[in-house]
Amino acid sequence: MDNSNHELTPATYTVQDVFGFPSQMPLQGFAPGHPLVPKATAGYVWEAKLAKDFIEWLTEPNPDPLWISGPTGCGKTETLKNVFAALNIPTVIVSAKASTEPDDILGRVQLRNGDTVFIPGNLLLAYAKGYAIVFDEIDGYNPEVIMAIHRMLERAVVTLDDGTIIKPAPRIYMAATANTRGDGLGGDIYTATNIFNLASLNRFEKWEMSYPPAEVEEKILQNSFAGKLEPKVMQAMVKTAADIRAAYRDGNCPGPISIRDLLRWGRKLVQSWARNDVPPLYHSFDKAFGNGVDPHVRAMLHTLVQTNFGVASPQIQGVTL
Prior knowledge:
Blueprint: E1 10-14, H1 15-19, E2 26-30, H2 48-58, E3 66-69, H3 76-86, E4 91-95, H4 102-106, E5 107-112, E6 115-120, H5 122-129, E7 132-136, H6 143-148, H7 150-153, E8 158-159, E9 165-166, E10 174-178, H8 198-201, E11 205-208, H9 214-225, H10 231-249, H11 259-272, H12 280-288, H13 295-309
């Protein structure tokens, strides 16, 4: 990442510009044009409570890093990207891998023209320039990686082993997304995540996210499929998603249905609506979600679809309910 030729010009936006609510409260960002500004999600819908939480965070004099925990596919990273997109803040997203070591994200000593020099990683460059930093799926990191960035989380000057000094930009937004709170209490489905010590967790402001309320999910679908799907169809899709999530919480489904899955279901339903060689409702549902689970579980999920749509479910070969 070398964007040293792209200067950041401060710019002021309003709550209405960023979140769509009628308020002229100012929010600080940058002028458009930087290549690392994330792309906004078309048709994104803000839940009022979540937007207010972000407004509080964005207007703090020195906001703490966020730890946003919540189930898979509830929109944690998407939410951050849309905030920074609206404010035109360049953003570096650091994705977690179990094999990641501190040097992988901070930088390494390399041989250049016969000399050994320290080459800072994208994370340190973002830290010095004032870009937003998102640690995606942070509970997948080795805890040593988080300990290595404690100074950054405190917005302190970072001194590396080779003597390199990295000073932070005057204002930096940092956030982490995770399926768990970092304390190991995320449920059986997240057994591959890591547990972090209190010294690491204490450096974050803690948020919890879940799936949006039904009216917000319906609006998300309407923004994508208005004129293509009837409102009652989209309402039934959202009700089915809520039932599947309840089945997951009760231990009857291996995973919850995400907002991405819902949008995929809608796209596939529009595409297959006129087909007569398959039942379009179930064919599209299975492409979006159902084919990813055991046939017996899929048959159970089909009963949820049938309940909400009133359309008989097809027989699944080898499954008898």
